[in-house]
Amino acid sequence: MSSTPLLTFNNEKDLINSSLLVGPDARTAYYTISTTFHKKPFRLERRHTTTITSVSTGLVGSIDWEEKVFVINGLGRRWDDVRVKDSRKRFFFTWADFPTYKLEFHDRLRELTATPVTGGPAVQFRGYHPKPFHMSQTNPASISFPHQMQDEVEKMFLLISIVYTDVKRLDAARAAAMAVAVS
C-alpha cells in the first residue's frame, strides 16, 4: 500500500496539544492541534474545544467536546450524526459525500485503522506507546494517509475522527484504571 509520508505527533503524551510533523528531520509542521479547557463549578478542568489546523492549506477543523459537534470549515455535525458505534473496538464515521469509514482498533498492533467500507486503502494511526524502561526511545503517535487520498477536507475529517476516537479510548482506560484503584 502506498501512503503519504508518516506524520508524527511531537507531544508524545498529549495528542490534543501537539503538532504533526513531516519530513526527513521531522521538524516541518503539517498540522497543529490545540485544545482549550475551562473549569466548571465543583468540577475539574474539562476539555472545551480541540482545533486542528492544516499549516499548508489553512483548513480548520474542530471538536467541540461540550456540544458534541465536529466542525470543518464552519460546517458542523453532531457526533451522533457522524459516528455509529458497532462494537467496543469498531466505529463507523461518515461526512458529507465522502465514503463511510470503518475505524477499528487492532490491539495486537496497537493501531487504529480507518478503511472505506466500499474497500480501498486505509488510514493508519498508531497511538503513543512507551517502551519498557530498558529501551531508550518510545514509539510516538503517528498517522499516515493513503497516497490516493488528496482531498484535504476528507483528511481533516479522518484526522478529527481518529483523534476523537483515541482520546475517548484513553479516557475509558483511565476511568477503568481509577475504578480498579478505588475498589
Structure description:
- The N and C termini lie far apart (46 Å).
- This protein has one domain (7-182).
- It has helices spanning 79-82, 152-182; strands spanning 7-9, 18-22, 28-39, 45-54, 60-64, 69-72, 75-78, 83-85, 90-93, 101-106, 111-116, 123-126, 142-144.
- It is built from two helices and 13 strands; from the N terminus they run E-E-E-E-E-E-E-H-E-E-E-E-E-E-H.
- The mean pLDDT is 87.
- A hairpin with a 6-residue loop joins strand 11 and strand 12.
- The chain has a 13-stranded antiparallel beta sheet.
Strand order of the largest sheet: 7-6-5-4-3-2-1-13-12-11-10-9-8
Q: Give the topology string: H per helix, E per strand.
A: EEEEEEEHEEEEEEH
Q: Name the average pLDDT.
A: 87
- Integer-rounded radius of gyration: 16 Å
- Give the terminus-to-terminus CA distance: 46 Å
Structural class: alpha+beta
Largest sheet: 13 strands, antiparallel
Helix content: 10-25%
Fraction in beta strands: 35-45%
The domain count comes to 1
Low-confidence stretches: none
- Summed up, the helix count is 2
Tell me how many strands there are: 13
Principal-axes geometry comes out as globular
